[in-house]
Automatic annotation (TrEMBL):
InterPro entries, per database record: ABC3_permease_C, Lipoprotein-release_system, MacB_PCD
Keyword annotations: Cell membrane, Membrane, Transmembrane, Transmembrane helix
Family: Belongs to the ABC-4 integral membrane protein family. LolC/E subfamily.
Compartment(s) where it occurs, according to its Swiss-Prot or TrEMBL record: Cell membrane
Chief place where the protein resides: membrane
GO CC, any one term: plasma membrane protein complex
Protein name: Multidrug ABC transporter substrate-binding protein
TM region positions: 28-49, 263-285, 316-338, 358-379, 400-420, 426-448, 483-505, 717-741, 762-790, 810-828
């Protein structure tokens, strides 16, 4: 055992000294893959943990939370629930997303009854600031209608201190609130404000309405059993939540996005495994005689396999350790300078702190080692089964991958991958979609030896020496060529698939924005928050503005259909029931309800997946505390709300709800009127209130939407670039190792009169031909993977569909760059093999 261990150390040290560059590339590739995966995991985990902690903090000691729609529900429900014998304490809460003039993000503001909240959620009870004269806190500030208390994070964010003024928008007006103190019990990084419940109802037009009730149950009351008795006592669209339900809904909001980012980050590690395979396979080919000699001297097959696997494990371990360190640094930098959102918009206002666990670090380190071992497995298995007597002879290198020449295992894997695309999601995640992508990649790579043989065997015969030698080499050694093809295929196919998917998504979003923005000018009371709205007088002033031919007003709201799922958006706007496609991006023909049927609604694609709503069906929606029947008249695409959205005609909504608030306006201009002139007239008519109004054109909204799209895909672009870089490393390492493995061949060619420049041209041509085949195969494979991403992974993850778009210019540019890089890399890698040592290498056969 000691002899084997000493021999292993000697061989490892010798390989590292002889070829430190290729070993370093393998280590770096594994390190980058581990670092990206670990950093994304740490950032997502930190953001989710902080968000979950914020949810727990806001619920306090409550056993249950009764929550309704954003518009609220009748406050008489509070008296009915608080009088139940099972309830020890009940605290009513008004909750709004308050828009702050000059700020991009809204401030979460709670209205509470301090006497009730102190027993259920004392963290929401403000601490009044001490008065300078006598140093005593002003307790009555808790009930002052102009007083507000801010959490430490909100004070730091807004740059305020007790005694300063906080300006909040309500309607198109503003309300000045005095910062009366702080909320010291608020969770770290949680930004919110608290004021008296009566003042909140008055200031924000919520008289008689509350958004939630926090319940603390009597001793001995089973929370789950009590919750099951509540639905008959609650209005439609109002439900009771346990703390774990709230956390589950919070996690569900971002789960698909987080999982897709994790998988994409691990693509770099997956590509790194192919780099290890290339370097290890070519290392085995180059050392085939040495390994056969070890077998002849008595080393067993198992011992040889363990030795080669130990080489891969050592590289994986070094890469894993380096990757964990890099991942920690990258995650800490992202959380410090950019927060934990990663462009997805799921954790606004959260500044999480890094929490690294030993278990997660060991898990990603194990993934790095496993990837390296996976890349070493096939070369080790083949080397251990080689016959020593045959392997000691020169010219036996091509037999290493001869077993892979049969196409049937590869075709079977590809068929299995294609079949898995029809599988349903698992727990709302496209697990089988990910597996099918991996199987297609593995199957295509295993098919490369046969594809290389078929392709290069039909190359035309030429008289010129250089192309003749290049063609003969590729046709006669398809197994060795396929090793170089593996890295090219893996990197380019994944690159092409991501490029096609992103281009398809972006083009679909662009067309969708053009379809849903038909007007020439748009007015919104707020891009964020729910405290802005158009009063009646302002709506009349907008409609009477010179240059405005027609105005359509809209209302955005939310309804709760399932307590275990996030709320669904309810959009009320004028819709032509005969031609709804004029306002909605419908996915199929609409259905016009017949006389006597309930009024129509149009649901987004997510509603069909999450709630099973189909065109022509009758559905019940909770509107203003009661269930109202509607007919699903069509399904439309929505790239904003992955949790579902329902569009209803504005008149139908106002009749059912009695809610006359308006939050958006679309303006069609009269002939000859310009958007600039009409916007200026609107500002003049609305006078001081125009500063609290967003006036924009559809072009600007489209540009903003596409910027938000690019921002949300920024991490995707980065991870894709990393995978491409690793693939290029693999190409360089592969060609370098192949050139050294062919030193005897170059020596013979030099002896028969072939010049070094001709050998260089031959290598450059081989690299270009291999890269061309890899690019063509990678483009086909990338297109197949893109089909899975577009038609399986995205619909199962985010519940929306898109049309396939091919970014031909980008793919062509990438293909040409890759072919040029492969050709130059092959030429550069052959310089060492074309040295004087290559001439003397033929002595081994004399």
């Amino acid at each position: 055992m000691r002899l084997v261990s000493a021999l292993l150390k000697t061989l490892l040290a010798g390989e590292l000294r002889a070829h430190p560059g290729r070993v370093a590339l393998s280590v770096i590739a594994i390190a980058i893959g581990v670092a990206m995966g670990y950093a994304v995991h740490l950032i997502n985990h930190a953001a989710l943990a902080e968000f979950s902690q914020a949810t727990r903090s806001l619920m306090g000691a409550a056993d249950l939370e009764i929550r309704g729609p954003r518009t609220g529900f009748d406050e008489t429900v509070y008296a009915r629930i608080a009088s139940l014998p099972q309830v020890a304490e009940a605290s009513p809460v008004v909750e709004v997303e308050a828009r702050l003039p000059g700020q991009q993000e809204a401030l979460r503001l709670f209205g509470i009854d301090a006497f009730r909240a102190v027993a259920v959620n004392p963290g929401l009870v403000g601490q009044p600031a001490a008065k300078e004269a006598d140093g005593e806190p002003q307790r009555l500030d808790l009930f002052d209608p102009s007083a507000v208390f801010l959490s430490p994070a909100a004070l730091a964010w807004l740059g305020l201190k007790p005694g300063d003024t906080l300006t909040v928008q309500t309607g198109l007006d503003t309300v000045a609130l005095r910062v009366a103190g702080s909320l010291p019990a608020a969770g770290e990084g949680l930004r919110f404000a608290v004021m008296d419940i009566g003042a909140a109802q008055w200031r924000f037009g919520r008289i008689g309405l509350i958004q939630r009730i926090d319940l603390k149950l009597a001793p001995g009351v089973d929370a789950n059993a009590f919750r099951r008795t509540l639905p008959p006592l609650l209005p439609a669209g109002v439900a009771a939540f346990a703390p774990e339900d709230k956390l589950r809904v919070t996690a569900t909001l971002s789960r698909a996005y987080r999982v897709n980012l994790d998988v994409l980050a691990l693509v770099a590690l997956f590509t790194g495994a192919f780099l290890v395979f290339s370097t290890q396979a070519l290392s085995v080919i180059r050392r085939r005689t040495q390994l056969a000699l070890l077998r002849a001297l008595g080393m067993t097959r198992g011992g040889l396999s363990r030795m080669l696997l130990a080489e891969g494990a050592a590289q994986g371990l070094a890469g894993a350790v380096l990757g964990i360190v890099l991942g920690l640094g990258l995650a800490a930098a992202v959380l410090r300078y950019w927060g934990g959102d990663l462009g997805g918009g799921y954790f606004p206002g959260v500044r999480p702190t890094l929490h690294a666990s030993v278990a997660s670090a060991l898990g990603f380190a194990a993934l790095g080692i496993a990837a390296s071992l996976a890349g070493s497995l096939a070369p080790a298995w083949e080397a251990a089964r080689a016959r020593p007597a045959q392997a000691l002879k020169a010219g036996d290198e091509e037999t290493v991958l001869r077993r892979l020449s049969t196409p049937w295992p590869a075709l079977g894997i590809i068929v299995a991958g294609a079949a898995l695309t029809q599988a349903k999601p698992v727990a709302g995640l496209p697990v089988f979609g990910y597996v099918s992508v991996a199987l297609l990649l593995v199957g295509a790579i295993l098919l490369m030896p046969r594809l290389a043989h078929w392709t290069f065997a039909i190359l035309p015969s030429v008289r010129h020496a250089v192309p003749h030698l290049a063609f003969a080499q590729l046709a006669g050694a398809p197994g060795r060529a396929s090793i170089g093809l593996a890295g090219i295929l893996a990197s380019f196919s994944l690159m092409a698939a991501m490029a096609i998917m992103v281009a398809s998504f972006r083009d679909s979003v662009d067309r969708w924005l053009n379809a849903v923005l038909p007007a020439q000018l748009y007015l919104r009371t707020s891009d964020t928050g729910d405290t802005g709205f158009f009063p009646d007088a302002e709506r009349a002033a907008i409609a009477a503005t010179p240059g405005v031919a027609r105005v359509e007003f809209a209302r955005a709201n939310q309804i709760l259909l399932n307590p275990r799922r996030p709320a669904v958006a309810l959009i009320a706007r004028p819709i032509d029931k005969r031609h709804p496609e004029a306002r909605l991006a419908l996915t199929g023909p609409p259905v016009e309800p017949r006389a006597g049927e309930p009024p129509p609604v149009w649901v987004s694609e997510a509603m069909t997946d999450l709630y099973g709503m189909r065109t022509g069906e009758r559905v019940m929606l909770p509107i203003a505390g009661r269930q109202v029947a509607f007919t699903v008249a069509g399904v439309w695409r929505d790239y904003v709300r992955q949790n579902g959205a329902v569009v209803i005609d504005l008149d139908d909504y106002q009749r059912a709800s009695g809610d006359s608030r308006i939050t958006d306006a679309a303006l069609w201009l009269a002939p000859g009127a310009t958007t600039e002139a009409v916007a200026e007239r609107l500002r003049e008519r609305l006078a001081q209130r125009a500063g609290h109004l967003d006036i924009t054109t559809p072009g600007a909204m489209r540009e903003a939407g596409l910027r938000a799209f690019d921002r949300s895909f920024a991490v995707t672009y980065l991870l894709e670039a990393v995978a491409i870089a690793i693939g290029l490393f693999g190409i360089a390492a592969s060609f370098s190792a192949q050139a050294l493995a062919r030193s005897r061949e170059f020596g013979v060619l030099r002896h028969v009169g072939v010049t070094r420049s001709q050998i260089g041209a031959m290598l450059a041509l081989e690299g270009a031909l291999l890269a061309s085949l890899g690019v063509v195969a990678g483009c086909v494979l990338g297109w197949a993977i893109a089909l899975i991403l577009v038609h399986v992974v995205n619909p199962q993850s985010f519940h929306w569909t898109m049309d396939l778009s091919m970014p031909w210019r980008l793919l062509a540019a990438l293909a040409l760059a890759l072919i040029a890089a492969a050709s130059l890399t092959a030429l550069a890698s052959g310089r060492r093999a074309m040295s004087a040592g290559a001439i003397h290498a033929v002595r081994e056969d004399w």
